[in-house]
Amino acid sequence: MGGSQSTRKLSVDNENAIQVSQEALDRIQAQLNAKQAEQPAPQPQYAPPPYYDKQKQHEYAAEEAYWARRIENLKRAHEKINSGMHLEYQKTLKEANELFDLVQADKVVNKLPPCQEEKGKMLECYSSNPDKSLLCSVLVNQFNDCVCRSRIAAVSASS
């Protein structure tokens, strides 16, 4: 029951099918031929005179020469600008290196502890007068003043 395919076949002949007569085909073909005949013929190609080609070639050569000169001028201007920039770069690099060297030298000088001379005098005074420390009070005050000046200079330099 419905599990297998049916072996019956059905064929229908269409007796009312449209048939086109040879006369109708001839009329349709005649109409197509008439439409194709009505289409305009392609226009003839215009062939310019030979002197026109020479004139165009001359204009083309003149344009090529103009642009070649223009490109060369731009290349020269570009090279001139590049050389100027290179010189400025070298000059600026040299100045920067000189400033960097000065800063580095200044840092080396500033890395030494301040007031070394006053410190040496004070320590020598204490060594030569171990029992009389009040004799070195003037040198201690000088050392203290030097340290205060160094601190003030460091603070004002950093701000």
From TrEMBL:
One of its GO terms (biological process) is inner mitochondrial membrane organization. Transmembrane segments: none annotated. InterPro entries: MICOS_subunit_Mic19. Residues 41-51 have a biased composition (Pro residues). One of its GO terms (cellular component) is MICOS complex. Residues 31-57 are annotated as: Disordered. This is MICOS complex subunit MIC19.
